[in-house]
Amino acid sequence: MKLQDFKKKYAKSFKREGDIKLSAMWSEPSLISLEDEKELPDGLHAKAKLIGVSPYGYRTFQGGVLLIEGMEKLQTVPEGTKADDSCFIVNCRNVRDLPSSINPFREYDIENCPALENLPAISFDAAYMNIIHCESFKVLGSGTQFKGNLLIKDCPSFSQISHGVEIEGNFTVSSCDDLQKIPEGLKAKSLHMAQCSNLTSLPIDLGKNVADYVIIENCPKIEEMPSAGDWTLLNLQGCTGLKRLPTDIKVRNTSAGRVDLSGCTSLKEIKSNISAPLITFEGCTNLVEISGKISTEELSAKDCKKLEMLPDGLTVGSLLLNGCSSLVTLPGGMNIARKLDLRGTSVRELPRDLNVGWLMDLRSQDGIKIPQEVLDRHEGKIVFPPSYEVLPTLDASAPEPH
Fold it and tell me: Which domain of life does this protein belong to (predicted)?
């Protein structure tokens, strides 16, 4: 069908402002037959119109949105089809190929298109590109580039990220069970992998090629974080198979800055030197020892039930150890600027050189031994248990026994 005839047949799909909305799922009777159309005409172009320019040079556009929805028999969108602003291809169950000519600048969504296997190998301009519920989508081809953010979600066959793929924005992959590895050379502003049950391998150059932050959450087969970069965030929450970390992890001092290893139940020892505004090891139920140098405003190791050892001279803002039932002793030289929470631990005696700046919570530590020096330094700063024993001050002036 020629474009003019198509426009005449589906006149209500062609909007005055420049949008084209081909939806067989609307209640409009004249559009219902779109469901049976097997082809689109050549030359479809949703054009954006310039409607204003601000004194600062910012341009405002209207229109330019292309919607193709519910066209069950459509297999191919013809080359030359264009959308200036945004394109949405939704519930087109037999679409296998998309043209390289569709390259909007704002948003490009492909959703519930189960026959689609890949994308054209071009540089996509869209600020946001989303591929969702496309069961046959398998690969990002070599040379494919994205100038904005890319989301691939609920695509169970997605298994390959080819060498040379670059994402200038944030790259998110969620619930893609066939993906096993992320290749070396992948570049992105940030990387977010979630619920990818068979992801086993991260690239050694991750620290160099990802600029802003890395989130690898609930990916149970990841065993090693090979490197870390100058990031605002490192989140490995729920990676239950994680066993090894890089030697040094340093996160920028921002309001969002943190290192999150909560729920990493295979970690037994943390030897890494870690610096971040917030560090959490909560629920690392097999963690026995923290031996690396820790620098943070708050370290939370709640419910690390096998934790036995902390580094000597630990100096942090707050230290939350509630639920660490195997922790019996605290190291010497500890300096806690704000809060120390020992509820639910097995600590029975505080070290004489302990310093806490604001609050020491001992509510559940019935019978704990507290040196007089600690009581003197922390008057009004201790939440006491029902009972405790005071250890007398050591007489520093007494001569040493011969």
Answer: Bacteria
Residue 81 inside a domain? The answer is yes
Q: Is 119 exposed, middle or buried (0-12, 13-18, 19+ CB in 10 A)?
A: buried
The answer to whether the predicted template modeling score (pTM) of the entire model surpasses 0.85 is yes
Closest Cα partner for 182 from 230, 229, 214, 134?
214
The tally of domains found in the chain comes to 2
Distance between CA 130 and CA 18 in Å, rounded? Answer: 23
Gap between the Cα atoms of 253 and 255, Å rounded: 7
Which of 53, 80, 97 marks a domain boundary? 97
pLDDT digits (tens, 9 = 90+) for 195-248: 999 999 999 999 999 999 999 999 999 999 999 999 999 999 999 999 999 999
The predicted structure's pLDDT at residue 396: 56
pLDDT reading at 398 higher than 80: no
Q: Are 140 and 160 in contact (CB under 8 A)?
A: yes
Predicted pLDDT at 53: 84
What percentage of the chain carries pLDDT values higher than 90? 90
Count CB-CB contacts under 10 A for residue 32: 14
- d(CA 284, CA 197) in angstroms, rounded, equals 19
The answer to whether 182 and 201 have CB atoms below 8 angstroms apart is yes
Q: Which of 97, 116, 148 is the last residue of a domain?
A: 97
Three-class SS of residue 255? coil
Beta-bridged to residue 304, according to DSSP, are none
- Note the Cα 135 to chain centre separation in Å: 23
Range of the domain at 329: 310-393
Amino acid at the residue 240? T
In whole angstroms, what is the distance from residue 393 CA to residue 230 CA? 46
* 317 vs 299: CA distance, rounded Å: 8
